[in-house]
Amino acid sequence: MFKVTHWVLITRSHLFSDLLNTRWPQEFLVKLHHVSPEHFSGDFLESRITIILIDLASVDVQTAYQIQRKVEKGSNVARVVFLHFPQQVDVSFLLQASVTAGVFYSDASLEQIGEGMVEIVKGKVIIPQDLIESNTAKDAVTDDVETLTIREREVLQVLRSGSTNIDIANQLFVSESTIKTHLYRAFRKIGVSSRGQAIAWAQTNLHEVTQ
Predict the structure, then answer these.
(1) CA triplet 77, 108, 127: central angle to 5 degrees?
(2) What count of other Cβ atoms lies within 10 Å of the Cβ of residue 163?
(3) What percent of the chain is helix, strand and coil (3-state, nearest 5)?
(4) Contact criterion met (CB below 8 Å) for 60 and 211
(5) Largest CA distance in the chain
(6) What is the pLDDT of residue 138?
(7) 179 sits in which H/E element
(8) pTM score of the predicted model
């Protein structure tokens, strides 16, 4: 008797979920659970889930990052696969060697994704070579960027436009003292000592993470 495995598809698109459900349950002998990002919880990590697919066409990358971190901390079994990974926006910080099992660009066909999933099920990691090479070339920068929290990234991204602390606080809906704390920590992590240096660093090394 064949053992049915369980995957979770995190997407806001019912059409995309229905499309995969017409093919993958039979192709992979898998039970595909569809949840929106708002309803993904640690309960899934305590179940028999082995693969978590995140649809970046309908899930913003910051939410995707937070979901993957939950998986990394809460499961020794589940691995993450990103679908509709954007090519025009630098979101390479999503890739985590310990948990990311696959990346498929927005232009990948269902057949190509299916072929890749066959390899992922076997335990392989499927990430486009150009993305791997890009990450390797940016290792020195990524070491700094990886240590930044999501909120510190947001603060530095707003800072790029020359905004004051009050402006940043109003935009991110936090207090000015909170912004000062984030900036202090971010400055130490990226090795700068002034706002001008931080702005220059952010303009060179940070990219917008919105789609």
Answers:
(1) 45
(2) 18
(3) 50, 15, 30
(4) yes
(5) 65
(6) 53
(7) helix 176-190
(8) 0.66
Residue type, 165: N
Sign of the dihedral through C-alpha 150, 151, 152, 157: positive
Angstrom distances, CA of residue 139 to CA of 13, 143, 186: 34, 6, 18
pLDDT tens string 172-191: 888 999 999 999 889 888 87
Tokens of 31: 């039970």
What H or E segment, with its residue span, contains residue 85? strand 79-85
Q: Among residues 50, 42, 38, 67, which one has the least CA distance to residue 8?
A: 50
Q: Return the number of other C-beta atoms located less than 10 Å from residue 108's C-beta.
A: 17
d(CA 41, CA 21): 21
| 3-class SS of residue 45 | helix
Q: Which two tokens stand for residue 183?
A: 């900036």
Residue type, 134: S
3 state DSSP class of 160: coil
Unique residue bearing structure tokens 């072929």: 115
- pLDDT (tens digit per residue) in 80-104: 999 999 887 777 778 888 899 999 9
Report helix angle 139-146 to 195-205, nearest 10: 120
